[in-house]
Structures are given as C-alpha cells and as structure tokens.
C-alpha cells in the first residue's frame, strides 16, 4: 500500500520522464509544424510556434488558442501532434523500471498522449512490458484532456474496476489533480523547479521529481 491505498495511477508525460526546457521547445516546434504542415493553418510557422508557446503559458495547453481563434478541431490536432511527437529525444531515467517494480501497489497509467505515442514512449522508457495491459489514453474515454471534469477519472476507475478512494493519482500538472481529488483519489504532484502549487488544497503530497517520490514509497 501507498498512503494506505492499493492502487497507483501515473500520468505519463512529464511525470515518468522529465521535460527539459530544450524538449519543451522541441514539442512547441512539433505542434506548430502539425498545425501548419498537417492541418494547413493559414499562418506561417514562426507565428504558429509563438502562439503555441503563448497558449501553454496562458491555458497550460498549446492548442487552446487554435481551438478558440482558428476553429481547429481538438481531435485533429491531437492526432497530428502525437504522430509527430519526437519520442526518441526523451532522456529516460536510469533504473526507472527497477524502482517501479518495487512499488507496493498495483500500478496503471492514465495519459493525455494518444495510444500511438504512449506506446512509443513506454517502449522508449523501458516500461512497456510492465504497463502493456495497464495503460489508457484520454482517447479511450472519448476526450482529449484530463483537466476538464472528474467524469473521465470516474470512467477510468470503472474501467479498471477500482474504487477512486483506494487510488493514488500522480501527475505533474496540478490542473489534473483537482478533478482526481474531486472523486476521492489521493493526489501527488511531481514538480521540478519550485513547488508552485503549495496553496492548492486538492494536492495531498508534492515531490521534487518522480525519483524522490519513488524512493520515498519503496524505502
Ligand atoms: Mg504530465
């Protein structure tokens, strides 16, 4: 058990690996290319990239400005972006699987990447065999985000057949934790530079980087 719970549900992106500033910039480029080259948005690449970065800053979602101002269909961008996601540029943590295997809880993944990208990421991180029947994407529940309502967390728990109050949910993005908390999950936030969400009452625990969390729960 972890914090008295039997189940641990992990976010994937920026939780089970660290998004460096360099990689964040590569992802902004990737999304801008998807918008201009795949979705044929009538703006130039530089403008698109600036808006992606701005959209992340304002909405914590690189696509939001394009849904609002350009009528981009979230599903189209979701697909085009994940198809281009440069997974090979992610630097995996060493010995992550060894630590994961020691966690005293049944573990799952709930990701906002699509199934295509999440399979590639899990393979790249050396986690695919461990999680192959225990990872789900937002697209499995007909949505593209996990910070809009607690419904998707309810559906997730129903899918894996567990009571939300018996789950610990771990995510770097605190806007996701708010909805997990609403249905009774215990919440853990992984942060990198500063614990910027100290004031958020829906966060039960916060750790600097996933390795410090893992070391604490497997000790
Ligand atoms: Mg994340």
What's the average pLDDT? 96
| Quantity of strands, as a count | 6
Indicate the low-confidence ranges by residue numbers: none
Helix/strand order:
EHHHHHEHHEHEHEEH
Can you describe this structure?
With 219 residues, the protein is an alpha/beta fold. It is 46% helix and 13% strand. The chain contains 10 helices and 6 strands. It has helices spanning 21-38, 45-59, 64-70, 74-84, 96-101, 115-125, 128-131, 151-160, 174-182, 210-218; strands spanning 7-10, 106-111, 135-137, 167-171, 186-191, 205-208. A 6-stranded parallel beta sheet has the order 3-2-1-4-5-6, sandwiched between helices. Helix 1 (21-38) packs across helix 2 (45-59) and helix 1 crosses helix 4 (74-84). The longest helix has 18 residues, at 21-38. It starts with 6 loop residues before the first strand and ends with a helix. Bound molecules: magnesium ion.
